[in-house]
């Protein structure tokens, strides 16, 4: 019963983790499965949008009608996102690693003992888009928190110049799981998007986006 209300719109989605190399065979990663972001890309395409999905390393099929760019690191994800601009809407769902490692060009040997890794900050893709000359009209970030969910999400919205933050309580088994409970924080307040499968919540969020753009 949903119309194709996003026809003609370009929607950019990031999803999955990033992998930050330690050496040629080892990485620092996080537990993002990419399922919520892929479901959002699928829901956007189903509403008729042109969708670019920038995906970190995940084991998921590309949703129908979605143009996918695979990346590994946060630096690569930022470059792919910028190359995909302009977009009407950007939904940054990826769990980007906060730090990268000063990687060794050759494999670290176990016999040398535990390495002293040196970390450097990664670019914040959402904050970069927040002040970008080609800033999408509707810029949406996610906040995955185990504590003080809504207040942390509200701070993130202003700190990163996002229009909306989708707040995601990850204190349960959300990471990698099939279901989720989302709240939407806008400049006007907080809306409960409900609990359900990641696919159902993706459709709810995209319907809300279509309503906003109309
Ligand atoms: O600060 P935090 O990582 O909790 O912010 C989460 C939001 O910011 C998500 O939308 C995530 O995709 C985005 N983010 C990003 N680049 C980073 C870190 C987070 O785009 N380096």
Automatic annotation (TrEMBL):
It comes from the Bacteria. The keyword Ribonucleoprotein does not apply. Residues 11-214 are annotated as: Phosphopantothenate--cysteine ligase. Keywords: Decarboxylase, Flavoprotein, FMN, Ligase, Lyase, Magnesium, Metal-binding, Multifunctional enzyme. Its cofactor is FMN; Mg(2+). Binds 1 FMN per subunit. Residues 6-211 form the DNA/pantothenate metabolism flavoprotein C-terminal domain. It catalyses: N-[(R)-4-phosphopantothenoyl]-L-cysteine + H(+) = (R)-4'-phosphopantetheine + CO2; (R)-4'-phosphopantothenate + L-cysteine + CTP = N-[(R)-4-phosphopantothenoyl]-L-cysteine + CMP + diphosphate + H(+). The keyword Lyase applies. Pathway: Cofactor biosynthesis; coenzyme A biosynthesis; CoA from (R)-pantothenate: step 3/5; Cofactor biosynthesis; coenzyme A biosynthesis; CoA from (R)-pantothenate: step 2/5. Its EC number is 4.1.1.36, 6.3.2.5. CTP binds at residues 98, 107, 123-126, 142, 156, 160. One of its GO terms (molecular function) is phosphopantothenate--cysteine ligase activity. Catalyzes two sequential steps in the biosynthesis of coenzyme A. In the first step cysteine is conjugated to 4'-phosphopantothenate to form 4-phosphopantothenoylcysteine. In the second step the latter compound is decarboxylated to form 4'-phosphopantotheine. In the N-terminal section; belongs to the HFCD (homo-oligomeric flavin containing Cys decarboxylase) superfamily. In the C-terminal section; belongs to the PPC synthetase family. This is Coenzyme A biosynthesis bifunctional protein CoaBC. It comes from Sphingomonas kaistensis. The lineage of its organism: Bacteria, Pseudomonadati, Pseudomonadota, Alphaproteobacteria, Sphingomonadales. The gene is coaBC. The chain holds residues 202 to 415 of 415 of the full protein.
């Amino acid at each position: 019963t949903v119309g194709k209300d996003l026809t003609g719109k370009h929607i950019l989605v990031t999803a999955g983790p990033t992998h930050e190399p330690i050496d040629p065979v080892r990485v620092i990663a996080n537990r993002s499965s990419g399922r919520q972001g892929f479901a959002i890309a699928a829901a956007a395409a189903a509403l008729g949008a042109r969708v670019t999905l920038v995906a970190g390393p995940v084991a998921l099929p590309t949703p129908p009608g979605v143009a996918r760019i695979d990346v590994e690191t946060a630096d690569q994800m930022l470059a792919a996102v910028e190359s995909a601009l302009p977009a009407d809407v950007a939904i940054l769902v990826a769990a980007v690693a906060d730090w990268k490692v000063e990687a060794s060009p050759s494999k670290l040997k176990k016999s040398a003992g535990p390495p002293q890794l040196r970390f450097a900050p990664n670019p914040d893709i959402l904050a970069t888009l927040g002040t970008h000359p080609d800033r999408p009209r509707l810029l949406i970030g996610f906040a995955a928190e185990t504590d003080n969910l809504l207040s942390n999400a509200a701070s993130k919205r202003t700190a990163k110049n996002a229009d909306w933050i989708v707040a995601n309580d990850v204190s349960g088994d959300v990471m990698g799981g099939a279901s989720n409970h989302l709240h939407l924080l806008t400049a006007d307040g907080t809306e409960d998007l409900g609990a359900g499968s990641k696919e159902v919540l993706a459709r709810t969020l995209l319907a809300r986006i279509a309503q906003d753009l109309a």
